[in-house]
Design a protein that fits this description.
69 residues; elongated
Length: 69
């Protein structure tokens, strides 16, 4: 696995790409959860969103570990 990606001569850590992908997934998932009324059962919405982001990041990193480098 490569830990850095060469982007037009600038070395960028792959974690940055994983963070961006996770943010995009979360940006799609949060309105869906609000629309179905899931947040009514959540005590603290901001803490839940943070925990959801961390869990999604873990899933994205885990799933990307099998990709060829």
């Amino acid at each position: 696995m490569k830990f850095q990606v060469d982007l037009f001569g600038i070395l960028v850590p792959t974690l940055l790409f994983w963070l961006i992908i996770t943010y995009l997934i979360g940006a799609v998932l949060r309105p869906l959860l609000a629309r179905i009324g899931f947040y009514r059962y959540v005590w603290h919405r901001a803490l839940f969103d943070l925990a959801l982001y961390v869990c999604l990041l873990g899933c994205v990193v885990y799933l990307s570990s099998g990709l060829p480098s």
